[in-house]
């Protein structure tokens, strides 16, 4: 965060535009795709991209989770049946072949990310196969200079999986934490002792991961300025290289699991703004640089 930067919020402006919009985790955003955007439209876009040249970024969505977090608005399949991943991955392999045929073969993949869901839901053999297929269809970097990252659920992963991911070429990871307050964790159905997060961080350091980011969410049930400040104090002690702190969007009409969260327990818009301002100030004081909104 920029240490000499003062963040000033215009409350009237915030009230005027107080509505949900698309996140820019990926771009173009989902709202850019419509019935008029056809396969031909996409191929034309790729042609223009090839003419411009430059490196590529690849995102792989592994949608499976064995439990549901009530706040989650991601595209997910909740199941304990690990065999469900195989037919999905078969389709991912076909997609890799289709996409690689469109792009110039010399364009290097500088950024690669596995998200979810829970990417480590798939087996070690499936991880090896997916990365091998990616390397056979796209030009990946083999000198560890790319940004190859993966989302990790510390409740799900063991040290041997971290070692395998490093072997496969991953050098960055983001750990889902959301909040260390037990009351909040119970309310969102994500019980995760800090020790699990620390064990994953230690494994990542041993294996030589270049960067570890922690994901936090503000606006969850039972959060307050004081409670989230305590979470931030604990996170600052953990000392990750990066932090993603983003706003919880309560849209139970769109995301069924969110119906398990009582609106009465959510902080008000004003309280969320105060949490955000406190977060910016506290992390700035701890030496972090504020690089913008969203993930």
Structure characterization notes:
This protein is of the alpha/beta class. It has a single domain, classed as TIM Barrel (Alpha-Beta Barrel). The chain is 38% helix and 17% strand. It is built from nine helices and nine strands. The strands form two sheets. Strands 1, 4, 5, 6, 7, 8 and 9 form a seven-stranded parallel beta sheet that branches. Helix 5 links the parallel strand 6 (147-152) and strand 7 (172-178). The chain is globular. The model has no long low-confidence stretch (mean pLDDT 93).
In CATH terms, the superfamily is Aldolase class I
Shape: globular
Largest pleated sheet: 7 strands, parallel
Helical fraction equals: 25-40%
* Top CATH class: Alpha Beta
Structural class: alpha/beta
Q: Output the CATH topology.
A: TIM Barrel
| Radius of gyration, whole Å | 20 Å
Write the layout of secondary structure elements.
Layout: H1 11-16, H2 39-52, E1 56-62, E2 64-65, E3 77-78, H3 85-102, E4 108-116, H4 124-137, E5 139-140, E6 147-152, H5 159-167, E7 172-178, H6 182-187, H7 194-207, E8 211-218, H8 225-238, E9 242-247, H9 269-285
Parallel strand pairs: 1-4, 2-3, 4-5, 4-6, 6-7, 7-8, 8-9
Helix pairs in contact: 3-4, 5-7, 8-9
What features would you highlight for this structure?
295 residues; alpha/beta; TIM Barrel; 9 helices
Brief synopsis:
This protein is α/β, with parallel strands linked by helices and 295 residues long.
């Amino acid at each position: 965060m920029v240490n000499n930067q003062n963040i000033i919020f215009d409350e009237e402006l915030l009230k005027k535009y107080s509505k949900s919009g698309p996140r820019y985790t990926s771009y173009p955003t989902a709202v850019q795709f419509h019935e008029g955007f056809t396969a031909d439209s996409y191929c034309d876009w790729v042609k223009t991209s090839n003419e411009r040249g430059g490196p590529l970024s690849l995102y792989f969505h592994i949608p499976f989770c064995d439990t549901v977090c009530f706040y989650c608005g991601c595209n997910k399949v909740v199941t304990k049946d690990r065999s469900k991943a195989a037919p999905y991955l078969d389709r991912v392999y076909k997609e890799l072949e289709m996409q690689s045929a469109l792009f110039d073969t010399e364009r290097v993949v500088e950024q690669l990310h596995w998200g979810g869901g829970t990417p480590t839901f798939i087996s070690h053999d499936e991880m090896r196969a997916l990365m091998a297929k990616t390397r056979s269809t796209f030009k990946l970097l083999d000198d560890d200079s790319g940004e190859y990252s993966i989302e990790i659920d510390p409740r799900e992963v063991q040290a041997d999986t971290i070692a395998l991911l490093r072997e496969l070429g991953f050098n960055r990871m983001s750990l889902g934490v959301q909040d260390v307050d037990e009351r909040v964790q119970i309310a969102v159905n994500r019980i995760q002792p800090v020790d699990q997060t620390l064990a994953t961080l230690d494994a990542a350091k041993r294996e030589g991961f270049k960067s570890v980011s922690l994901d936090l969410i503000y606006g969850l049930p039972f959060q307050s300025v004081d409670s989230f400040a305590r979470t931030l104090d604990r996170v600052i002690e953990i000392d990750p290289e990066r932090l993603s702190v983003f706003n919880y969007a309560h849209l139970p009409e769109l995301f069924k699991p969110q119906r398990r969260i009582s609106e009465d327990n959510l902080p008000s818009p004003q309280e969320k703004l105060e949490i955000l301002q406190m977060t910016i100030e506290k992390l700035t004081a701890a030496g972090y640089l504020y690089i913008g909104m969203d993930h």
